[in-house]
Q: What sequence folds into this?
């Protein structure tokens, strides 16, 4: 789905990120599983940032050899920056310098949806560095943090619209009460915060440690959460929470790498493109359910459209990498962070996917639960379930980061009594899952996954 269309301009700047081998990741993973297991004696004994950094820092040999290699190419240490654990080395270079460094050629690639990336499908390192470097990006990763909002269905039928509006009014008139049952609080045509709070048993929840717990979520690709829109939603469906929309302590927006935070009304072009649909939906849903727990939105720049005739250096970094390095550098983090973005796993080189997943493990060891959307296309979009290895083999397509074993993948459901996996034949929406072709299934999933796979028999064999 990508076509090579030309060369990047000579002054295009690549923000190169070099992942050095982490010295004791196996030990960090052991800590993660122990402190995350309710049946383990160490449950809840999370590590602090210094302890995590000590486990993942590279060996001295790795750091010295990489610095020497860069010096041999005229890149002094004064141009380098590092992650807190020094397991990532970062440097900004003109594309021609990166091409010489990695013995490669970059090109501009265009996706069928109009997205542009500057990438190098192949690259190389001196043999003596292979055991010291896991991956270097942006090179051969075509991953895009696509928002899982593509299947939002506007109500266009007049009769259906009146039915939805009527259901909304009934739900608004319903008095929140712990005694409400799901049938009283919920309508399949109009799912409100009251419905979700009733369905999941949080209608009368009170924070146990106010002032400590926080929730976070991520915005990418020019998305933000418009405070006025969030206020209007909450004023209708969670009135006691409405003023939080304008409270920068209770609802904070942090800007990373020039992320967007437009708070003025969208223009006609932005409205047509659906700008901020994802950011508004996430903020409204989280605040509508979890108020009064404070909320942080992380708005991360990166991977904007790139035009070959642009003369201004353009950031085409991997946005997940930018975001996760930012949060790992913070001392104080939310206990839960939700992300509604992902892409096909096969668009991500295995080495890079493993390294990003390892960084999620670092957050998990510090007590951060990471929730990711499972995807909108089930086992893959219609007509696109083929491998990208040149063989075009028919295959199910897992999502990334949904398949990473160090995060929690959340699928979609519909209906009540019973609540079932979501499928909408009107637009082809099918909830995804957490399977992976890159990562082995962790043992903690065996009890649930093995019987499910067995029940499928030979239905999808091959």
A:
């Amino acid at each position: 789905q990508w076509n090579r269309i030309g060369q990047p301009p000579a002054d295009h700047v690549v923000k190169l990120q070099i992942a050095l081998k982490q010295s004791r990741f196996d030990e960090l993973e052991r800590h993660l599983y122990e402190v995350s297991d309710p049946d383990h004696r160490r449950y809840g004994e999370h590590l602090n940032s210094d302890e995590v950094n000590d486990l993942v820092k590279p060996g001295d040999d790795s750091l010295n050899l990489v610095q020497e290699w860069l010096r041999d190419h005229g890149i002094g240490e004064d141009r380098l920056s590092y992650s807190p654990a020094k397991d990532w080395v970062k440097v900004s270079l003109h594309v021609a310098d990166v091409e010489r460094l990695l013995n490669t050629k970059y090109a501009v690639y265009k996706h069928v949806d109009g997205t542009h990336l500057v990438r190098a499908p192949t690259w190389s390192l001196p043999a003596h560095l292979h055991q010291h470097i896991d991956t270097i990006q942006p090179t051969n990763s075509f991953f895009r943090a696509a928002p899982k909002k593509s299947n939002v269905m506007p109500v266009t039928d007049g009769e259906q619209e009146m039915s939805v509006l009527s259901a909304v009014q009934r739900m608004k008139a319903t008095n929140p009460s712990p005694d409400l049952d799901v049938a009283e609080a919920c309508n399949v045509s109009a799912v409100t915060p009251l419905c979700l709070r009733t369905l999941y048993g949080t209608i009368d929840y009170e924070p146990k440690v106010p002032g400590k717990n926080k929730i976070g979520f991520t915005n990418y690709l020019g998305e933000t959460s418009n405070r006025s829109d969030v206020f209007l939603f909450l004023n209708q469906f969670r009135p006691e929470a409405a003023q939080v929309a304008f409270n920068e302590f209770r609802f904070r927006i942090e800007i990373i790498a020039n992320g967007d935070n437009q708070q003025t009304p969208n223009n006609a072009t932005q409205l047509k493109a659906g700008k901020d649909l994802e950011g508004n939906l996430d903020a409204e849903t989280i605040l509508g359910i979890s108020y009064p727990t404070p909320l942080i939105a992380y708005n991360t720049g990166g991977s904007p459209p790139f035009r070959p005739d642009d003369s201004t250096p353009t950031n085409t970094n991997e946005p997940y990498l930018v975001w996760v390095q930012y949060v790992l550098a913070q001392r104080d983090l939310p206990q839960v962070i939700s992300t509604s973005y992902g892409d096909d796993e096969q668009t991500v080189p295995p080495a890079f996917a493993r390294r990003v997943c390892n960084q999620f493990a670092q957050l998990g060891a510090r007590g951060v639960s990471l929730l990711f959307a499972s995807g909108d296309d089930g086992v893959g979009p219609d007509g696109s379930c083929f491998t990208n290895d040149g063989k075009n083999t028919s295959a199910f397509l897992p999502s990334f980061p949904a398949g990473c074993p160090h995060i929690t993948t959340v699928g979609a459901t519909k209906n009540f009594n019973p609540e079932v996996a979501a499928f909408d034949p009107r637009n082809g929406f099918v909830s995804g899952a957490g399977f992976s072709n890159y990562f082995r299934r962790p043992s903690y999933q065996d009890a649930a996954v093995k019987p499910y796979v067995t029940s499928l028999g030979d239905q999808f064999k091959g």
